[in-house]
Amino acid sequence: MIGLVMAGGKGTRMDAKEEKLLLQYKKPVIIHVIDALKNSNCFSKIMAATSNNSPNTQSLLQNNGIEIIKTKGDGYVSDLNTALSCLQEPTIVVSGDLPLLDGEIIKDLVASYDGGAWQSFLVTKKFLDSMNMTLEFSVNHDNKECYYTGISIVDPKKISSMNMIKETYRIIDDKRLALNLNTKHDYDLLKGA
Questions:
Q1: What gap in Å lies between CA 96 and CA 159, rounded to an integer?
Q2: pTM higher than 0.85, yes or no?
Q3: What's the burial of 179, exposed, middle or buried (CB within 10 Å: 0-12/13-18/19+)?
Q4: Which of 66, 86, 125, 193 could form a disulfide with 61 if both were Cys (CB 3.0 to 4.6 A apart)?
Q5: CB-based contact 48:7 (threshold 8 Å)
Q6: H-state helical runs in the chain
Q7: What is the pLDDT of residues 171-187, one digit of tens each?
Q8: Rounded to whole angstroms, how far apart are CA atoms 163 and 166?
Q9: DSSP code of 115?
Q10: Cα(193)–Cα(175) distance, rounded to whole angstroms?
Q11: Residue 96 contacts by C-beta under 8 Å, 6 or more apart in sequence?
């Protein structure tokens, strides 16, 4: 299995002077994600999708031995499609702005992979509300309002068309998956964690 970190966004909602994934939480946020993938010992290779939106993040990743897939930086879905078209084995796709990830939760996610084309991990709205957190994209699953965490396991060989993917879901209400740095409020929550 490959570990793929999405690291090519502009991070405009954060309204920070530096690239969002370089914000510090003891070390740059993106390095927390890379270390979680490495510490899980689940992957034959760890890669990152970057773009011209994040040149300093790309340099940091390359200096840490991470192979880069260059994307156009036209948006998450477009960049993800570009990256997946380069891969031929099951891949965990992780947003680069999940600083609380650790090797243990990554192992749990990989162990729960159902073998399908696309499995996404969700948290419930109830859990997010209890943690004073918000996420952007919702889906109704199991009669619950849920939100995407930015983590999926995808098998590129099982995808013939992005329009015809059978997506499966797993709910894991865990702050390691829920704290996604999109806004200054999220960063304040992280600093208080």
A1: 23
A2: yes
A3: buried
A4: 66
A5: yes
A6: 29-40, 55-63, 76-84, 103-111, 125-130, 175-178, 184-192
A7: 999 999 998 877 777 77
A8: 9
A9: S
A10: 10
A11: 5, 6, 7, 9, 21, 29, 30, 33, 48, 57
